[in-house]
Structure formats: structure tokens, C-alpha cells
Amino acid sequence: MAILVFIVILSILVLLHELGHFLMAKRAGIGVEEFGLGLPPRIWGKKIGETIYSVNWLPFGGFVRLVGEDPLDKNVNAKNSFYQKSILQRSLVVVAGVVSNFILAVVIFYIVVFALGFKVSVPLLIEHKFKFVNETRQVFVVDVSVNSAADKAGIKNGDSIIKVDGGNISSISELQSIIRSSEGKVLILTLENPVNNKTREVAATPAFSQQLKVPALGVGLGELVVLNYQTLSQKVFSGFIHSYNTIDYSIKVFGQLIGFAVRERDITPVSEGVSGPVGIAQITSQAVSLGAVSTLQLMGLLSLNLAILNILPIPALDGGRFFFIIVEAITRRRVYPKVEKWAHSVGFALLLALIVLITYNDILKLFR
């Protein structure tokens, strides 16, 4: 089921991306040679007007093939060629896929934020200020020791500990202070599930830890940021706000991982933070097990990531094509066709090699 959900999600994201290119190309009068569901080889195809609509064997997303998209195409000088359209028209066609993925993410996050009662929890990996929304902090459980006081009380990984004996808890140090002064005392802990915001109470008794030399529950603790969309404007624009904050936070986290890798000359943190198809399929399995809202959150995050990745100025990606259009707009001269095609070919080869490397790393993670 998780694999099926993964294929469906990936197909929807890529198809909507390609649909953006398709619709904008049609609007600009650019010929579309083929709109494919899945990737070749082809199972079935039917030509309607100038376009072949096909179904292909590999069930991952789809593709759009435009007339004159390749600067060395034999039809590059045709009236309906991509290459013959204005800078503005070509720019709109190139970025349409990215815009489609961003809009999809916004819509998904509207649904998620509404389903969670305008209260969304985000694990705090690094210190960060989320914008345009009210935020509070929660302590959550990242690990539970077997046969510990927490394990016996029914505390699970991912639970947030929001109250102890009716008093609010807002920091790890505050919770640790209470636990360390309560050896042998029964504590009533109010727990919240960040996935669905449901609460429950459990009774746990701290016991002396020989390893820590202090009373403990037997849990590893982390910190959550709870984003509260309280005002009318925050609720109305919650989809956009959450999309913006997700992008801003993700870029900051990844930037710090790269910075650490450069300083320490160790790429392990970066490789652990990047996933390919195998890794994403595994994450999808975890999201599906947590329910529809978590699956939608993952889908929104993947849609944003697809948009960000594609707008990067890397040859073979939309951002790379857009970069050549910008160069043309600045210099008032088209980039030499053979140079552009060579750049896209090399970029595509490097991207394939990177995907293979990441996939290999994902497979190694499965056996750790």
C-alpha cells in the first residue's frame, strides 16, 4: 500500500508539473508533440490534433515534448516552435511547472492546517523564527528506553509532554527539573500527539538511573515548534504562510548541514539529510502509517521540494533553461544552440549519476 501511495503521489506531482508546461505552451501557441502519462517505453498512444497523448510503462509522473524545445530540433524554425517565441512567452512556459507545484503545495497545506485546527507542529532541528504566525514550544519524546518508567506508562516516540500534574511544560530543562526532584513520586503527564493534536493522560513514576545518576523516566527529549494560526488573516493565508515557512526553514537547515560538511570535511550529515526514490518511499510508508493528514503533509513538502529543485539554475532542469533565457534577455543574443544542448546533456547525465548515488545511499540506510 505504501509503495502504491508513493507511486500515486509522485505521479500526481510530476503530472501537475508537466500539465503546467502543457497549458502554458498551448496558450502561447507552441506545438506540443506528446503529453505522456508515465515514462517510455510507450504502451498506448493516440494523436488528437497535433499532440500524441500516451500511456507509458514506467509509472512515474509524465512528460511533455514541445516543438522546437531542443535548439537543434529540425522544427526549430517552425511558427509554433518554442524556440521562436518571445522571451516572456518562453519564460512563462519554463516556470509554469514550478508554479503548478507551488500552488498544489499551498492548497494541500490549507487542507492540512484546517484539519489540524490551525495548529501545526514542526520538529525544531535548529533555532529558527517562523514568520507571520504565532509560535509556542513543546517538549516531545524522541526515544523511549525498553522497560523504563516511560515505557511502562505507555509513552510513545513522538508524544509531546505538555503538562505535568496540570502545570504547563515549555522547555526540556523545566521538565528535567521536575523529574529529577520526583523520584518515586507518581506524575500525571498530559501527552499530545502532534500528528492529530489529540491529548491523553498517563501516570509515570521516575526511577533512579544508574547511568545518569539522577531520577529519570527513560526518554530522549527534543523540541517542537507549534505554529498557531490564530488571527483571521493568518487563517486566510495559512496555506501561503506554511509554504513560505517550510521553504525558509528547509533551506536554513540544509544550508547549515552543508556548512558543517565543509567545515568538518564530512559529507555524512548531508547524505543523511538527502533522500532519493527509495528513501522517499520509506518516508511515505511512515507517513501512511500515521494517517491521511501526515500523508498530505508529505505530499505538500514533496511538491515544494520539486518546485525548489526545478527552479535551480542547473542545466536540464527548468531553472537551467530559464537561466539561458535570462542570459539572452541581458545580452540581447541567443546562446549558441550547440552550447545550450551540450550543457543540458551534461547536466542531465550528472543528475542521473547523482540520483544513482543517492539511491545507493538510501539502500545502504535500509540495512543499518
UniProtKB/TrEMBL annotation:
Protein's UniProt keywords contain Translocase: no
SMART domains associated with the record: PDZ
Entry's Gene Ontology cellular component terms: membrane
Gene3D superfamilies, A to Z: 2.30.42.10
Keyword tRNA-binding set for record: no
PROSITE patterns named in the record: PDZ
Location of this chain's protein in the cell: Membrane
InterPro entries cross-referenced by the UniProt entry: PDZ (IPR001478), PDZ_6 (IPR041489), PDZ_sf (IPR036034), Pept_M50_Zn (IPR004387), Peptidase_M50 (IPR008915)
Name the UniProt record assigns to this protein: PDZ domain-containing protein
Source organism of the structure: Candidatus Curtissbacteria bacterium RIFCSPHIGHO2_02_FULL_40_17
